Amino acid sequence: MAIERKPIRRGGIKSAGYDRANRILEIEFDNGSIVQHTAVGEEIARRFLTSASPASVYKDTIQEEFTVRRIK
Fold first, then answer.
1. CA of 8: how far to CAs of 14, 29, 41, in Å?
2. How far are the Cα atoms of 2, 17, 50 from residue 60, in angstroms, in the given order?
3. Tens digit of pLDDT for each residue in 34-57?
4. For labeling, which of 39, 47, 63, 72 is most exposed (least CB within 10 Å)?
């Protein structure tokens, strides 16, 4: 199942989307790589997706805390 990503275009992040049912946050970076973080809570995903500086939220809250799987 594909996760619908919305444009972010800030801080090296091109787009991102969240699958609430499976708690997966999918992020596409400016360099073309795509990763999925699993077991991400809805509040953390919402904070990341609506942040004025998503790269900071990603580095501080998501990057090292949640299991990552590289998609591309």
1. 5, 10, 19
2. 26, 18, 15
3. 999 999 999 999 999 999 999 999
4. 72
